[in-house]
Amino acid sequence: MALKLIVLVKQVPDTKNITAKAMKADGTVNRGELPAIYNPEDLNACEMALDLRERYGGFITVVTMGPPRAADILRESLYRGVDRCVLLTDRAFAGADTLATSYTLALAIRKAGEFDLVLCGRQAIDGDTAQIGPQVAEKLGINQITYVQRVRENAGREIILSRNLGRVAETIKTRLPLLITVTSSANQPRTFGAKLTMKYKKARTHMEIERELNRRTASEDAVNRKYAELDKRGLIIETWSAADLNADLGSIGLAGSPTKVKKVENIVFATSKAKNIEPTEKGIRKLLDELIEEHTFG
Ligand code: FAD
After folding, report:
1. Given this model, what pLDDT does residue 276 score?
2. Residue 189, preceding bond cis, omega within 30 degrees?
3. What ligand 1 atom has the least distance to the C-alpha of 12?
4. Considering only CA atoms, which of 99, 280, 77, 108 is closest in space to residue 196?
5. With a threshold of 0.85, does the pTM exceed it?
6. Would you state the pLDDT for residue 273?
7. Which of 108, 167, 258, 266 has the highest Cβ tally under 10 A?
8. Is 181:147 a contact under the CB 8 Å cutoff?
9. Residue nearest (by alpha carbon) to ligand 1 atom 28
10. Which residues have C-beta within 8 Å of that of residue 252, sequence separation ≥ 6?
11. Would you call 86 exposed, middle or buried from its count of C-beta atoms within 10 A (0-12, 13-18, 19+)?
């Protein structure tokens, strides 16, 4: 059965290159100060969707909520081979915690049309909560399976998946529609396709067209002409606002976010001395005796 697949992807600050300016005083991430990348596990989710489309046929829609520059990861998704991309962007979405983010994403999934499978990364490397997938499933009223390693089989409305639980793997048979979160060990994400990159490097959002034609000098007509020309060639990245989603303004962005960051501190882990512990039963017993003696344990 051909699958209607939706992949949720997030543009995240590259946390491997953190500087002291990474956080603002109010506890939110200073995104302008950090290079932005495709959230690593979302690449695994995207790869799993591409693989499923190759195996069963289907259509892949990629959705992200973020600032206008998040269009970059949507273009990267097109370079890898997805069919359709949607950017959810609006000042009213800013400051969203996981509750408001999942509400917005669930509205977008419903607006995107019928779906069989929603794929998310297990976790984003900035927020790090791993809450979005489960919260979106809850809001859509569908089943969820987290830590998915592999889709083994899909026959009609039935699907068999394996979960990676560290030391054990779990196999589950369930029914579509379903939301899954995908782990980093699931697959090796493909690189950009050369032909796809040549084609989609010109893909633009409405805002990017305005910016490139220079808002102050370009007429609305010129923007609309360029939009129609790109649209005809399948090179438009759709942009949806809060109004497009018919969102309740009290449930999105800062207004819809009960989480408040109380305090942010820089923590530096420093060691004064190091000790070698023998990786034997005797070595571990000695360490435990010392910890009990120092009243760390016991
Ligand atoms: P996880 O739950 O770890 O992500 C799991 C998966 O969900 C991802 O792999 C991806 O597949 C999907 N996913 C997550 N986020 C998105 C997304 N945006 N679009 C599509 N798919 C997604 N963040 C901001 O970007 N801007 C802000 O202004 C902002 N303000 C905040 C204010 C407060 C008070 C708080 C508490 C948080 C704020 N955040 C903001 C962080 C924001 O809440 C989280 O980044 C977001 O809700 C996702 O949570 P997470 O990063 O833990 O994702």
Report:
1. 84
2. no
3. 25
4. 77
5. yes
6. 76
7. 108
8. yes
9. 95
10. 92, 93, 96, 100, 103, 104, 242
11. buried
- Ligand 1 geometric centre to CA of 298 (Å): 40
Neighbouring C-alpha atoms within 13 Å toward the C-beta of 77:
35
Calculate mean pLDDT across residues 126-130.
90
Is 8 near ligand 1, meaning CB less than 6 Å away? yes
DSSP tag of 131: -
Tokens, residue 58 = 């289907």
Lowest average pLDDT, out of 28-37, 58-67, 116-125, 288-297, goes to 28-37
Does ligand 1 come within 6 angstroms of the Cβ of 171?
A: no
pLDDT of amino acid 134: 98
90 CB under 6 A from ligand 1? Answer: no
Of residues 56 and 296, the one with the higher pLDDT is 56
Closest ligand 1 atom, CA of 132? 2
Q: Give 209-249 as a DSSP string.
A: HHHHT-TTTS-HHHHHHHHHHHHHTT-B-EEE-TTTTT--G
Are the CB atoms for 161 and 180 separated by under 8 Å? yes
Q: What angle do CA 127, 130, 134 make, to 5 degrees?
A: 135
Q: For residue range 271-287, list pLDDT tens digits in order.
A: 777 888 888 999 989 88
